[in-house]
From TrEMBL:
Domain of life according to the entry: Bacteria
Keywords for the protein's UniProt record, in alphabetical order: Signal
Signal peptide as annotated in the record: 1-18
Protein name: Glycosyl hydrolase family 43
Source organism of the structure: Mucilaginibacter gynuensis
Amino acid sequence: MKKAIQLLIAVIAFNALFLSTGCKKDKKNAPNNPKGTYSFSNSEYTGIARVGNHYYPRPLSLRFGAKDSVIAWSHLTLTKWRRGDVPGKITKVEEDAQGQTQVTVLFDLPGDEQFNSPQVYTISADKSKITGGSSPIIAMVDMKLFPKDAPSIVGNWGQPDHPEWFPDVNSTTFYTQGLTSYFSGGDPLYSVHDDGVIFKLNYKQDGSRILFSGANPIDPEIYVIPYYGVLSADGNTLYVDPYEFTAARITTSLSTFEWYGPKGVTPWLLRK
């Protein structure tokens, strides 16, 4: 009888150990993030992802709230265009044996319910990156943890080795006053209405998220094209995408020649 009891205790202990090494709920109120529901609460991941029906990965900022809210910021095109915030809700969180966190998110896509399957993302054990998801909603390509103290966009940005790429935005300067100026063919772009006055447009920065414009000087006017961008985690790369495709000078899936940059690649600018 004594041996039987000892054997039963051993079996129970083994089962408990086995279950503890499988999936379990994410630790709430984790020491590194005490104000949030989950260990990844109040965090942000930035980079590029397959967002909607598009011909290259788009810039994406994914922000987790304090509880179950999620906001994906990009340009999601299915049967409708969604510029900016795409709200979602966490429906399930589990941690695996390797310390990775599986997060299931259901995005709110009214009118596109036929596409709206739950997205399962994996946050690495050290919380440095997020992967997963499925097309055509949001499938991660290269997404990393963005710092709490967001780097400023202020400075000069471009493609120094490829001045012919992405000419709407290549060689753009962001100023502290919320204004941008542009270079075209190596020269500053001047206003067509005021001689000697540098042409400037407004921009807005919200952490990693940048709303700005591209400029296309076609005599006698300068055409303004709405763009958005997302800063990389290290703050040295700005992934960009136009909101207006018919006017933007980028290479598309229908381009015969790569006049404005490589096909299938997200346009990007480097901090100079």
